[in-house]
Amino acid sequence: MSLEIFKNKQVLITGASRGIGAALAAAFAKLGADLFLLAFNEERLQAKVSELAALYPACKISSRAVDLSKPEKAEQTLREIQSTAGAINIVVNNAGIYRTASVAGHDLKLWQETMDTNLTSAL
Prior knowledge:
The protein contains four helices and four strands; from the N terminus they run βαβαβαβα. By secondary structure, the chain is an alpha/beta fold. Strands 3-2-1-4 form a four-stranded parallel beta sheet, sandwiched between helices. Helix 1 links the parallel strand 1 and strand 2. The radius of gyration is 15 Å and the shape is elongated.
């Protein structure tokens, strides 16, 4: 399979400011895809966008800092991306959080935030 298939494809990556999401953003940029990067932390996200833009100047990169644990924010962001970009060809649902607490220290709010980010946001 030729990797040219990714050239000019629209790729949406959540959790794109670090880790696996950032690595995938770099890989898709190198292959010539256009990127829509979403992450919670705006400062880290903008640093990643700047880094990728310098490495891959031909790559079109859009980004948005958004709390994907809030369904209304996630839906609004997707609508805005679709209205400007049209169809998204590839989606990488990578956003996730990890919170450490003892069983006794886990309250319903912490549980709900984790489930909303790690599971519901993918939907």
